[in-house]
Amino acid sequence: MTWFFIALGAPFLWAIVNIADQFLVSKYSEKEKERSSGGLVLFSSLIGIFIAIFIAIFTTGILDVSNLDIILLLLAGGLSIVWIILYLYAIEIEDISVIVPWFLTVPIFGFILGYIFLGETLSTSQIFGSIVVFFGLILLSIDFFERKITAKKKTIIYMLIASLIIACSGVLFKFVTIEGNFWVSSFWEYSGLGITGLFLYIFIPKYRNEFLYMHRMGGRKILMVNITSELMTISGNLMTNFALLLAPVSMVYLVGSFHPAIVLILTIIGSKFFPHIIKENISKKALLQKFIAIFIMIIGSVFLFK
Asked: Is residue 274 classed as helix, strand or coil in its secondary structure?
């Protein structure tokens, strides 16, 4: 069972990263203005530049890649900024424990894109699991506590597009790397992240102004949190890859689907004991809705990775 704890460590690290993201948005974005946290993505893009340089120092064959592959990997890195921006916008208007479950749609989009572009097949259980996951997400995205039951439309739009973009980026990375070097591909992908960030800083005044505002408010702290978050994200990815060597792929990915449940547990603990870091609605009705919806999505994931 060693593989289980290694695999479980990955979503735990990712959950901490999500909590850190919520903290940064709540503390450094201009709360009175929606879509004011886009400048945070520029800090992430700076990290991308440093990681690309670090990879280049310890990796050979950086230039032994075709021009087409370089363009596709740079595009994959650029797409990363787009989904991060949408993700941050979603955090501004909704609890992180409601946002994270939407990432369970990434493998669904991945299956569909893999079927279309990579010749992969979709099984009956994957189709059924996808439907169950979406049902749980719909349940999670409905506000039952208003006088009139309403869907959280902006959250749905932001996260569906973000998840689709993540899947597209993953397919591009896999398409290029399937017979190549992982670290070489990672160098170009992180380079794409950094170059796109610089482009946003130079040509998009809104993001530049937000970045400068956040830098004045707590630039060093934001940068350190982003560095720590990126290291934890990479560590989680490596733990997943190592667990894949010890256990079936479906079992490892199934454990990864516990990510939303871990986030929910951490937000409950944080809201009770560390409200200066994170504060969510932990009323009995809200928690019941979240627990039921996440449970349904985990059941869907059982079929998805069967």
From this structure: coil
